[in-house]
Design goal:
There is one protein chain. The chain has two domains: 6-49, no CATH class; 57-146, NK-Lysin, CATH 1.10.225. With 171 residues, it is mostly helical. The model is unreliable at 26-30 and 147-166 (pLDDT under 50). A two-stranded antiparallel sheet has the order 1-2. The chain is built from seven helices and two strands. Residues 57-139 form the Saposin B-type domain.
Length: 171
């Protein structure tokens, strides 16, 4: 439990008046001020509520690569415009709960770099994440099978097969 002792100064005339009655021996008293207790409690709650980075450096690197590769796959490698790229990057960042704030800030600050890298013809998410310092040179690129290249869930075939044919005629 946090304990705060605060010295509160009274106005000189109040202390003289109170000291004549024998209540206050001098011009200062020790008091527990409600406002200061509230402030201390608020500071303590704020410190406890601060988000700590729960991601390891490896997870941060992986999420950076996943976000960039997913957006690149969404456009099929053909980025239409910087505006659409930034919009899709924001959308992708919002999907990653523990990485959301960091991702949004990084993508906003580095949107020119990301656009340039994605449109030069040899895009590698690991290289961009290295430049943005989300990865370090000792990290390894994500395995291709860990990433959905299209950025979209698999679609089911909409064609019928011989098993789908139902004979509704009565025999």
């Amino acid at each position: 439990m946090l304990t705060i002792t605060v010295t509160c100064r009274l106005r000189r005339q109040d202390s003289v008046h109170e000291s004549n009655r024998g209540i206050i021996p001098d011009d200062s008293i020790l008091c527990n001020c409600r406002m200061l207790w509230s402030l201390a409690g608020l500071i303590l709650l704020t410190l406890l509520a601060l988000p700590t980075s729960s991601l390891t450096p490896k997870e941060t690197c992986d999420l950076c690569q996943i976000a960039l590769r997913t957006v690149f796959g969404h456009f099929g490698g053909n980025i239409p415009s910087r505006r659409k790229l930034v919009h899709q990057l924001k959308h992708e960042c919002k999907r990653h709960f523990n990485y959301r704030r960091r991702c949004l800030l990084l993508m906003k600050v580095n949107s020119d770099l990301i656009f340039r890298e994605m449109t030069d013809g040899s895009f590698k998410p690991m290289e961009v994440c290295l430049i943005m310092r989300e990865c370090n040179p000792h990290d390894s690129p994500l395995e291709p099978e860990m990433i959905d290249k299209s950025g979209q869930p698999e679609a089911f075939a909409l064609v019928s097969s011989s098993d789908d044919n139902y004979d509704t005629s009565e025999e």
